[in-house]
């Protein structure tokens, strides 16, 4: 979504953006969770524009959240009356 928004705001002719993410555990590293991301960008864009979009992918909110580490809390709510 972030890449699409950025390309559209610049008026770049990006026709399709495909992403794939995989996850694995590597107990020999810290953090142990390792995500691999693949991005494919279709359209008549320059190499400079492609590089810029891949840089945007590094700064998107989801990437930043996962990179910094997260903590989950379970919050229970009362059932509706």
Could you explain how this protein is built, in words?
The chain has 81 residues and is an alpha+beta fold. It has a single domain (2-67), classed as 2-Layer Sandwich (GMP Synthetase, Chain A, domain 3), CATH 3.30.300. Helix content is 36%, strand content 28%. Strands 1-2 form a two-stranded antiparallel ribbon. Helix 1 (2-10) packs across helix 2 (47-58).
Order of strands across the biggest sheet? 1-2
How many strands, what sense, and barrel or not for the largest sheet?
Answer: 2 strands, antiparallel
The CATH architecture would be 2-Layer Sandwich
Radius of gyration: 17 Å
Q: Approximately how much beta-strand content do the residues carry? A: 25-35%
* Ends apart, CA distance between termini: 38 Å
- Tell me how many strands there are: 2
Task: Please tell me what the overall shape is.
Answer: extended
Unreliable spans = none
Topology overview:
Elements: H1 2-10, E1 14-25, E2 33-43, H2 47-58, H3 61-68
Antiparallel strand pairs: 1-2
